[in-house]
Amino acid sequence: MDKKQTKQRIEKLRKEIDKIRYYYHVLDKQIVPDSVKDSLQHELYKLEKEYPGFVTPDSPTQRIGGKPLDKFNKVKHETPMLSMEDVFNNAELADWEARISRILGKKPDGYFCEQKMDGLAISLLYKNGLLVQATTRGDGVTGEDVTQNVKTIESIPLNLALQDTGYTLQDLEVRGEVFLPKNSFEKINQQQIANSQQLFANPRNAAAGSIRQLDSKITASRHLDFLPYGMKNVTRYKLYVTNQEQIYKFLNKLGFKINKHNKFCKNLEEVNKFHQYWNRARKKLPYLTDGVVVKVNDLATQERLGFIGKAYRWEIAYKFAAEQVTTVVKDIIVQVGRTGALTPVAVLEPVNVSGSTVSRATLHNEDEVHRKDVRIGDTVILQKAGDVIPEVVKVLKNLRPKNTHQFNMPKKCPICGGRVIRPEGGAIHRCADPKCVVRVKRSLYHFASKSAFDIEGLGPKIVDQLF
Ligand SMILES: [Zn+2]
């Protein structure tokens, strides 16, 4: 082959490889065995090595490779990447609708409902159709340049299919969520075990850890996925999209995978049905979703509503009530009850479980703490089913920090300093000092008094009645 023929061959190979990729990663259809794509890619790689001048940034070979970085460069977002407000039940969702309806003078004309991906937000910048920069959300104002790593995500087009849209877009910013499918997450943790490395607590942590690898080869091995959730500069190009639903159709035309489960709901009743349906059906999905993002569908209305603080008014995350979540044990304290019984209590990093924030969980008694081996610093699975009190189900021992100690009940009462005894045959430790109960009461007087918490109506008389 002469130089001209080689160039043509390279271009044909790229087109073919990209078509296979598009079918597989965007449309979820395998049109040829993996080995066919591999051998085409191998031929392309060899030709590009021979003629480095023909390498383009959107060549499939550019998805993997490049030298490992020393650090990530900081990038300021053109417009801040805001966060989302959460609601946890129908009533809170209705409050949100009432708030925005007051601003609009009427209810919005329908909502677009999306499965909320449990991943991390990324901004993709395309110039003249070419992916030039990918940035993490960071603190919302400034993120990190992770372009090299994002290129390894095969469902992200390196080159937009602009020819099908009739637009020439100089600048297009696409925002979306990078996430890790459940099966990739399991494989990564198996790999971590094989390499005697710490396990990832959940797919989101694993996705975040994978996107922040200085060596993009590691990122490539993690098989991340991407779904867009929005587009900037819509008005600048006078695109013929007037609502959220059309944004997705447009992004799909440009070559992005979109979530086919997302749908338009004309009122909150339909939104609630969508939420209920996926709350049950989400277990069968190949990825994690932790709620429904409800967006005012009409883009002009979105613009009118704007944002308040750090969140847009026109969208809200309607979370699924998780019955089991993970959190960290910050401390284990011992409470003395009114009968002198000592109870160990886990002080937790506050976490939302089953729709309420939990920062403490009883550990019942010393035997229970030993059986579960709960230690300060541990990451634990916390469960709260319905109205049942929150419970530490188990410790994720692979996430345990170094130098932790087994918890033992104190020898002295934390209230009076008296001797602690454990009556034979019982699991409960007690303060041996009979006067201790008086002191517990006294500490409660103080707790309720004006000099401390100033709890109205909780005077000494009421405290006495509590005993
Ligand atoms: Zn005591």
UniProtKB/TrEMBL annotation:
Pfam (any one): DNA_ligase_aden
Known EC number: 6.5.1.2
Keywords in alphabetical order: DNA damage, DNA repair, DNA replication, Ligase, Magnesium, Metal-binding, NAD, Zinc
InterPro entries named among the record's database cross-references: DNA_ligase (IPR001679), DNA_ligase_AS (IPR018239), DNA_ligase_CS (IPR033136), DNAligase_adenylation (IPR013839), DNAligase_N (IPR013840), NA-bd_OB-fold (IPR012340), NAD_DNA_ligase_OB (IPR004150), RuvA_2-like (IPR010994)
Cofactors that this protein relies on: Mg(2+)
Catalytic activity: NAD(+) + (deoxyribonucleotide)n-3'-hydroxyl + 5'-phospho-(deoxyribonucleotide)m = (deoxyribonucleotide)n+m + AMP + beta-nicotinamide D-nucleotide
Domain NAD-dependent DNA ligase N-terminal stretches: 5-452
Alphabetized SMART domains for the sequence: LIGANc
CDD domains: LIGANc
Enzyme class: ligase
Gene3D superfamilies: 5' to 3' exonuclease, C-terminal subdomain (1.10.150.20), 6.20.10.30, DNA ligase/mRNA capping enzyme (3.30.470.30), Helix hairpin bin (1.10.287.610), Nucleic acid-binding proteins (2.40.50.140)
GO biological-process terms attached to the record: DNA repair; DNA replication
GO molecular function: DNA ligase (NAD+) activity; metal ion binding
Recorded family membership: Belongs to the NAD-dependent DNA ligase family. LigA subfamily.
PANTHER family in the record: CHROMOSOME TRANSMISSION FIDELITY FACTOR 18 (PTHR23389), DNA LIGASE (PTHR23389:SF9)
Name the UniProt record assigns to this protein: DNA ligase
